[in-house]
Amino acid sequence: MCRGFPPREGARPLSDHPDGTAYPGGAMSRPAATLTTAQVAGLLGVKVETVYAYVSRGLLEPVRRGGPGGSLFDAAAVQALRGGLSRPARRATGDPVEVRTQLTRIEGDRLSYRGRDAVELSRTASFEEVCALLWATDAAQAREPGESSRATLERLRQALPPRTGVLDRLKHAVLVAGATDPGRHDRRPEAVVQAGERSQGFMLAGLGGPPGGSVAEALAAGLGAPDVADVEAALVLLADHDMAVSTTALRVAVSGGADLYSALLAALATADSPLHAMAPATAVGWVREALDDPHAVLGQALASDRPPIGFGHRVYQHVDPRAEELYRRVTARADRAVTDAVDLVRGELLERRGWPMTVDLPLALWTVVEGLPRDAGPALFATARTAGWTAHALEELEEPGMRFRLTGIYTGER
């Protein structure tokens, strides 16, 4: 497998210097009061890749994208961003600036759960063992719904519109799990763990997974995935990822007194976005285009200031370890033409723009290669993340209630 190359020392994006020549006076020919990408990076004191990240997050908007002379940015907007980045955040007394956790550590390009490397765990541990590790319990097992609850879920599945999205179906499954649990408001740690196991079981039933077996076996059967080992590995790799927005939403809900089922609904609602759990489904179309004509797709990607779906990460600068491990597994059974096409695109995007492949790309590729339903990636993501969400709920129960209180800075009419 061909891996992408790290950015060369001192390399500039091609959009800044398309022909490699200097402009008269050492500056590029451009409208007044605009800055090149390299100049923006110098003014803000960041890497060029960070400027691209600011663009992808909507913090900067180019006045001209790519083309001759490269991208240009309004100097006043850059100065305003510079002031915002240097200004200390205002907050109310007692508001948390950061959330302390003993669960997940992301350091450089490594991911670990309670000090255990996540990639290594994906090769040696079951998803249930990782749940037990995150929940600090001796064992964990999804709790299957009883006959009455399973019948309720089936009636609900039949009542939903045929094209109901996978995360909506999982939300309904969690809703039924909570509504039929007489102990849903029990906030003791052991009760929260049981609620997490119960939620997993109902989610699997909501996806059509057969009763019995492990989470990976039930999910593979529900999705029609041929290799249970790959599903198991993906579940482990996606079990938690520190303070993602969905995890933050869950912690806020728990801090406000919500039971785990309601907090999981908050997390699922936040994750139900093409920028989060739905990203693998969004990337499926892009992957198909890339496999059909990788050079054309690469050209389109390099002409943009924003990374295509499946590339560019806010946390990892060079390698998303989850993506590399899943990509290794997926391409082990893929045709050479498939791996060549993807390797070309991901290698060039990393070298030229510093956009590493994210976990969304191999999930989308897995969907295409195995002929799985388009929403297989989001289904796998949400099922896996119940492990981390439940673990964060357990941690949040040890904190003072109602501790999340942001301070709004009023900018309206006075």
From TrEMBL:
Naturally occurring in which organism (per UniProt): Ornithinimicrobium humiphilum
Biased composition range(s): Basic and acidic residues: 9-19
Residue stretches making up the HTH merR-type domain: 34-82
Pfam families recorded: Citrate_synt (PF00285), HTH_17 (PF12728)
Single GO molecular function: DNA binding
Pathway note: Carbohydrate metabolism; tricarboxylic acid cycle
Name recorded for this polypeptide: citrate synthase (unknown stereospecificity)
Coiled-coil intervals: none
EC number: 2.3.3.16
Cellular-component GO terms for this entry: cytosol
Chain intervals for the UniProt region annotation (Disordered): 1-28
InterPro entries xrefs: Citrate_synth-like_lrg_a-sub, Citrate_synth-like_sm_a-sub, Citrate_synthase, Citrate_synthase_AS, Citrate_synthase_sf, DNA-bd_dom_put_sf, HTH_17, MerR-type_HTH_dom
Key words of the record: Transferase
Family: Belongs to the citrate synthase family.
Enzyme class: transferase
GO biological processes: carbohydrate metabolic process; regulation of DNA-templated transcription; tricarboxylic acid cycle
